[in-house]
Amino acid sequence: MFTKQTYINRRQTLKEKVGSGIILIFGHNDAPANYPANAYKFRQDSSFLYYFGQQRDGLVGVVDIDNDCEYLIGDDIDIEDIIWTGFVPSVHDLAEEVGVAHSAPMAQLAKLIEGRPEVHYLPPCRHDLMIQIGDLLGIHPLQVRDKASLRLIKAVVDMRAVKTTEEIEEIERAMAIGYKMHTTAMKACRPGVTEKYIGGLLAGIAESYGCKESFLTILTMHGEIFHGDPSLRPLEAGRLMLCDAGAETVNNYCSDNTRVTPISGKFSPRQRDIYSIVEACHDLVIDRACPGKKWMDMHLDVCRLMTDRLKDLGLMKGNTDDAVEAGAHAMFLQHGLGHMMGMDVHDMEGLGQVYVGFDDEVRPSTQFGTNCLRCGRRLQPGFVMTDEPGIYFIPALIDKWKAEGMHRDFLCYDKIEEYRDFGGIRLEDDILITDNGCRVLGEQIIPYHIDDVEAFIS
Ligand code: GLY
Ligand code: MN
After folding, report:
1. Nearest CA to ligand 1 atom 4
2. What CATH number does residue 363 fall under?
3. Atom of ligand 1 nearest to the CA of 428
């Protein structure tokens, strides 16, 4: 938790940005896994954390702009709960800790908003909150997301997108744990060890530091499957292990890195060829990302460099600009270059990607591949972005596009067929946009240059 003043200041800025009405920021409720008393590990809503800082379930933060007062709403627990959970601070004490003057039980919430024409709330991602908000405001639960306050969404995005020094320090703490997770995976990677075993080591490292994984770890010999879960398959000599994982600190700030390790200890010449293209694309971002640069243009710069280098290998042909304009490169890079990162590993995605990553100047693309870019707008100092180019050989996509004759002027299908069992390579680091460029976050950078990787795991 940050200092009381941080939360007071954030709510003050939010008040000024929204201007009028009453703001409700809903915290999360416990979510049952298979029966009510066996819940998923609690994860608080990130915007609630940002403005009200408290980790307890069943809370709602209220900022009444019109009457200039704030409440923390929630029910205190009684002896029936205390015998199971031990002491839990009162809602009054939780409110006081983050500089909120008033607290009240949940039954009071309806009274606070009675007759108020402007009730602002954020779109919830959890279904129980859709029901709770729907019931409170008399809206069908399925319409709750659509009726959320655009003014509030935009104000929250404006604030959360630009990270302060204390937030960057927290992200750096996540990076340090992420470094231990990734370097452990690289060292453990050898033929015969299962993907799940290494995935379990990573989860254990995060937990042992009081953290957790910032999302379900992706760890697979099938790097071409973007969100491939670790399986019980043993790692095979000659293949690559792709590991995309990160830590989330006790204060819920995240890291997100991807590394690719040769299971035999050395990259084959063909693996080196593809890896070095991804490496060059990754490094291009570090060279060029700066305030004012559109992230959409950064993505397209990477696509052009990738196309040039794939032409050198005989996998693509034709004019590079035309190929990228047509979207032919999406045979190899089917996702976006990177996303914002903060308290959510895909930061604020639940608020609506179009409000987070786009604006009037830069609209989302509808073209296959680039339509997965989660952010396109101009970068600002304080933005934290992931830099995660990749090259993937997806047999189902090769077959489909080949059968349809897609981009025949740019794609060399005979050569591509030679790579159909290759898998995929992605490299991912997290960058902070600074006043005149960017900085890779993390005191120690997980090895990624080919010779460094081979030396590190030898
Ligand atoms: N690192 C996982 C993702 O960005 O989806
Ligand atoms: Mn990512």
Report:
1. 346
2. 3.90.230.10
3. 1
